[in-house]
Write a structure and sequence with these properties.
The chain has two helices and 14 strands, in the order αββββββββββββαββ. It is of the alpha+beta class and 364 residues long.
Length: 364
């Protein structure tokens, strides 16, 4: 007995081909959408990481710039800043360098009773330690700046590392004890580093905790004079790393930083008016009068994604995104796109401590 014709119906070959084609189109469209979404996600992830690094670096640079000179006597404010305009590292980009000095962390102002210069210990005034709530072990391994009495005519300072302090329970015979030699790798700005010729120059001088913070960009990953793995320096060809060098130790702050630039504003011609922002002048390096006239620092931190944007077409849209290195201050930019997306931050810091004595350490 044969089955009814209606129960034997099925798909024809044409119907199978049409259905398969439609299914294939849907699958390909889904895969294309997933690929595009994944590309955008990868691009946005690296851009978000870039923004975080640039913002972190800018926060620290602007904070320390505002604090330049804090804790220093007014006679030494001209040593609070140091700069280099477009230092050459052999790379395409030539960044700037900024050095700021001050007592950024803990207040300290110890009057000097007796110091021979580069000696193993320094006697401070009686009851000096009692003015601060620091336990004796707090002073260990701290970096201090030893300044002479400015009335002596000597404007040189020593940077030493404290091993421990000694004093009597009565608050007398109080001394700072140092490790042999001056602190290595700590370069004071403005030519302050040195030892006064006479021990009498230190009578009535002062000792303060000190931070010498240098902000610089390692373009090549092989910075001249530095050794990979020593004092925090990464090296080994890993370039575009923004560093903070604090008292001779290098701290990497952010990766994929392409450029770092600074300009300075102040009354350089001494006419009572600010003259506008200009790059660091080589004649300022050991001129404490000119440095003490700086009132503002403008800074730029430019980041570039590690990899090109895979979601960008052959012709990146102009005026919408930074897909080429821009001109910043007196640092030239590129003429062509490279599909790396940039993130640029600009900030201006007012150096408030040049007119304020924070911690009252400027008063003698």
């Amino acid at each position: 007995m044969s089955l009814p014709r209606s129960r034997c119906s099925g798909f024809t070959l044409l119907e199978l081909l049409v259905g398969s084609t439609i299914l294939l189109i849907v699958v390909l469209a889904t895969l294309s959408l997933y690929r595009t979404s994944n590309q955008i996600a990868v691009d946005q992830q690296q851009y978000a990481e870039l923004q975080h690094g640039v913002r972190s670096g800018m926060y620290l640079i602007s904070r320390d710039s505002r604090m330049a000179g804090v804790g220093l006597p007014v006679e030494f404010f001209g040593f609070a800043l140091g700069g280099v305009d477009n230092e050459t590292q052999g790379g395409i980009v030539e960044p700037d360098r900024l050095t700021v000095m001050g007592n950024f962390d803990e207040p300290l102002n110890l009057g000097i009773d007796n110091y021979q210069g580069s000696a193993a210990n320094l006697a401070v005034m009686d009851f000096s330690f009692e003015e601060y709530q620091y336990p004796d072990e707090f002073y260990e391994n701290k970096t201090v700046l030893i300044l002479p009495n400015p009335s002596s005519g000597c404007l040189l300072g020593e940077v030493r590392n404290i091993t421990h302090v000694t004093h009597d329970a009565s608050g007398t015979n109080e001394k700072l004890n140092f490790s042999p030699g001056l602190s290595p790798g700590v370069n004071l700005p403005g030519g302050l580093s040195g030892t006064c010729s006479s021990s009498n120059d230190y009578d009535g001088g002062m000792v303060t905790f000190i931070n010498v913070n240098e902000y610089w960009l390692d373009v090549t990953g092989n910075y001249p004079g530095l050794t990979a793995g020593t004092n925090g320096y990464i090296g080994n060809g890993e370039g575009n790393v923004l560093y903070l060098t604090m008292n001779g130790v290098h701290y990497p702050l952010a990766d994929n930083v392409e450029n770092l630039q600074f300009e300075y504003n102040g009354d350089f011609d001494d006419d009572g008016l600010l003259d506008g922002f200009i790059p660091w002048q080589s004649t300022w390096t050991n001129d404490i009068t000119m440095i003490s006239r700086v009132r503002q620092i403008k800074m730029w931190v430019l980041g570039r994604t590690e990899n090109p944007f895979v979601s960008v077409g052959a012709n990146p849209p102009a005026n919408l995104h930074l897909y080429r290195r821009p001109t910043i201050a007196n640092s030239p930019g590129e003429a062509t796109d490279d599909k790396h997306k940039r993130f640029l931050l600009e900030s201006t810091a007012n150096i408030r401590n040049l007119s304020l004595n924070i911690y009252n350490t400027g008063n003698r």
